[in-house]
Amino acid sequence: VPGEEKYKGKGISYCATCDGDFFQDKEIIVVGGGNSALEEAVSLTKYASKVTIVHQFDHFQALEHYIEEASKNVKINFIMASKITEFIGREKLESIRIENQVSHEISEIKAEGAFIFIGYVPNTGKLGGVLALNGSNVI
Q: 23-52 as b/e, with b when 16 or more CB fall inside 10 Å?
């Protein structure tokens, strides 16, 4: 995504536990719709004034517990069926441009931080045949 490399460490992070406290009272986004994204979004509400989850599908790929917990949190908003098309800023991340996957409407939202929780590849290759792995190569 344009701007992702430019703003790594300047607003874009991949670890809520590591970097969450840098976003005290800021508006941030979480990218993704699985367990990690929803769990980390809830965690980030301890720091951020507002957390917006941006997910490319119209439904989550997370356990019901995580969906319910995030849905009940007043600091969390959802932008579904949308993808990020650009990270925007000057010295650091300031906003993101998103495209709705259904209407193709383009919009820009304020984002002083972005936490990306998509596309993980499990590091379990050496465990195949030793431990039972599921279809996603997860124990």
A: beebbbbbbbbbbbbbbbbbbbbebbebbb
What is the pTM assigned to this prediction? 0.86
Amino acid at the residue 17: T
| Cβ-contact 100, 82 below 8 angstroms | yes
Strands across the sheet containing 113-116: 12-13, 113-116, 27-31, 50-54, 76-79
pLDDT tens-digit map of 88-116? 999 999 999 999 999 999 999 999 999 99
User: How far apart, in whole angstroms, are the C-alpha atoms of residue 117 and residue 114?
Assistant: 10
Residues with a catalytic annotation lie at 15, 18-19
Q: Report the alpha-carbon distance of residue 49 to residue 13 in Å, rounded.
A: 17
- Compute how many other C-beta atoms are within 10 angstroms of the C-beta atom of residue 96: 28
Report the C-alpha gap between 48 and 31 in whole angstroms: 15
